[in-house]
Structure formats: structure tokens, C-alpha cells
Predict the structure.
Amino acid sequence: MNQEITPYSGTATKKEQVASMFNNISGTYDFLNHFLSLGIDIIWRKKAIKELKSIKPSKILDVATGTGDFAFESIKILQPDKIIGVDISEGMLAVAKKKIHERNLDHVFSVQLGDSEGLQFEDNTFDAITVAFGVRNYENLEKGLADMLRVLKPEGKIVILEFSKPRVFPVKQLYHVYFKYATPFFGKLFSKDKKAYTYLNESVVAFPDGERFTKLMEKVGYKNTKHRSLTFGISAIYTGTK
């Protein structure tokens, strides 16, 4: 799913291109995230993480952890015993490791190179799984969802935060203009990789959001699936249990 939407042209797989893209923008990723979303991404993360408060997870897997922002917020809100973050970008993980060390959180949070579609963990390992703005980058979305389900404990919960497509006037029109023109402009200005932020828009457009995504979750075996729109449909929180 979404294999035809890739950051760059060439013969490399989507997975390889996504890893290269995030390596290229890792140094400016945090700044651009907050700048381009006007800081709203921080509010979205907090809302998503609060979906796990009722189950009080002890061990969490943060897939596509990037620079670790979602996991850091999870530590504040949920106070788990352990969070493991996995990502395919060594550049993003280098930033995450530095932040972990600076915050003295090595005893709680560790990161490792890993593929969301082939997680190197035993079945039924984690109480909860989180993914923030990562699933639309999967080369095979169904396979990635299935492997996360595999490592989730019975009754465990997954929380996915992802961009979606607004459908209400005038938000839909403003969003389209902003993502198609402003985002690549500022992306190139600060990260020197315009294509990475052009891909952002293309990948959001191609992503099967809303009910289409919850149906895909159900197809691979998740139960009690729900989706909740945020900020006029600009992003959404998806949840499911094993």
C-alpha cells in the first residue's frame, strides 16, 4: 500500500528512500515540525498519549520513533517502566539518543534501528504501541500493522497519530494550499531538502485515512477500532486493541 508514493525518484525501495530522507532532514526535523504546524503537533501528541492513561502501560513500543518526541511525552504522561523506540533512520535515532542522554532518561527510554514491518521482538511483548506520523511511510501498510499486532500483548492497545485530509470548506482549501506550496518552500529553506516536504503532502493525499484505515486495522485483527479527528480533520487519532 502506498508503494508508488516515494520521496525521490530512482530504483531504491520506498523503505530505503524514506530512511535516506529522514537522515537528510534529521538535524532540522524537530524545529520544522513545530514551526510548520504552529506548535499544534505538541497538543496532538498529548491527546493521543492520553488514550493510554486508562490501561497504565508498563512497557511501550514507539514505532517510527524519529527523534523521540512522542516517547518523551509518553514518559511524562504515562510514567511507564520502559519505552523502546525503533526507527529506520540512523540520523533520527542519533538525535533521539542525544536527547535521551541530555534528559537522563537512559533507564526508561532506549532506541534501536528497526523496521516497522519486521519488528525484532517476541510475540505478545508490549502493553501498548504508539506511532506518530509514521504509518503513511510504511512500504507495506498492512504488513506493518500486522507485525505491530503480533508484538502487542493480548488486551494491549495501539495508538496511531497521523495526518488526514480535511473535508470542510474552507479548511480543505487552505490546507491544500499550505501543504502543497508553503510546506515545501519552508522545508527547502531550513532543511535544504524540498523533496522531503513535497513528499509529505503526497503521502498524506495517498494515505487511506478515516474509516478506510480503521477497516484496514480490523482486517489484520485489531478490535475496538476507533478514529477521532483533530483540528478540523488535519490529523486523526486511531486506536485499537488486541
User: Anything to note?
Assistant: The chain has nine helices and seven strands.
